[in-house]
């Protein structure tokens, strides 16, 4: 029974460490994609970037805890197992806070960023100032989007920046040839697709759950180790 318990513990430790390593790798890739794409310059992804750093840090600690737990179990080292237990449950809280921070950031972006785009588009249309023309044109060209909601917002005259260069007719853009992606969706859809993806969210939640199970098994191994030490002394 004791051997079976240890085998399950080893499998859990390896699985937890592997999943956490993948989580850290994905979070690092997401962080790089978000901040290298240039979208944060328009909308501001400071909070989402912080969430990715949070998950990378927490994930790295998970890898360490799983390795420490396996080492402690192999060597019947009670001190390592106790430290592993404390770190695992502490890191679980950190992990959950990281997940919460990411989801809250997503809600803030969805709520505030689109309103900011609407304001800037209004400045473009009604004031036609040099401050806002470059912003909308650069946003639409860079991210192949058109309008805050859709291209019809620009009617009757659609900006050339709403079309790819090869589709312009005499320098003019038409509804049929305009980008069909809205710049408003870019404010938060890119957060899900390029940043905190559904895969990362699911994996982070899975890792958090595994941490609880792993922590519980660590406590069981500590008790077994204590019993083994008492039996050996007798």
UniProtKB/TrEMBL annotation:
Membrane-topology annotation of the record: Multi-pass membrane protein
Localisation per UniProt entry: Membrane
Gene3D superfamilies linked to this entry: Tetraspanin
Pfam families, A to Z: Tetraspanin
Transmembrane segment boundaries: 7-32, 52-74, 81-109, 201-222
GO cellular component labels: membrane
Chief location: membrane
Keywords: Membrane, Transmembrane, Transmembrane helix
Highest taxon of the lineage: Eukaryota
Signal peptide: none
Protein's UniProt name: Tetraspanin
Source species taxonomy: Eukaryota, Metazoa, Ecdysozoa, Arthropoda, Hexapoda
């Amino acid at each position: 029974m004791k051997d079976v318990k240890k085998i399950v513990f080893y499998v859990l430790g390896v699985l937890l460490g592997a999943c956490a390593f993948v989580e850290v790798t994905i979070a690092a890739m997401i962080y790089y994609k978000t901040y290298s794409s240039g979208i944060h310059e328009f909308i501001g992804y400071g909070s989402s970037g912080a969430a990715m750093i949070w998950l990378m840090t927490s994930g790295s600690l998970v890898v360490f805890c799983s390795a420490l737990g396996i080492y402690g179990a192999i060597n019947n080292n009670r001190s390592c197992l106790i430290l592993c237990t404390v770190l695992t449950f502490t890191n679980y809280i950190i992990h959950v806070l990281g997940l919460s921070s990411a989801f809250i950031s997503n809600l803030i972006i969805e709520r505030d960023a689109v309103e900011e785009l609407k304001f800037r588009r209004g400045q473009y249309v009604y004031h036609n100032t040099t401050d806002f023309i470059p912003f909308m044109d650069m946003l639409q060209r860079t991210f192949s989007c058109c309008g805050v909601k859709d291209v019809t917002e620009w009617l009757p005259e659609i900006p050339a920046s709403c079309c790819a260069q090869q589709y312009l007719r005499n320098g003019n853009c038409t509804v049929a040839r305009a980008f069909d992606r809205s710049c408003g969706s870019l404010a938060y859809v890119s957060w899900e697709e390029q940043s905190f993806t559904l895969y990362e969210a699911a994996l982070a939640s899975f890792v958090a759950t595994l941490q609880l199970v792993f922590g519980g098994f660590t406590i069981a191994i500590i008790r077994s180790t204590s019993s083994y030490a008492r039996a050996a002394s007798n």
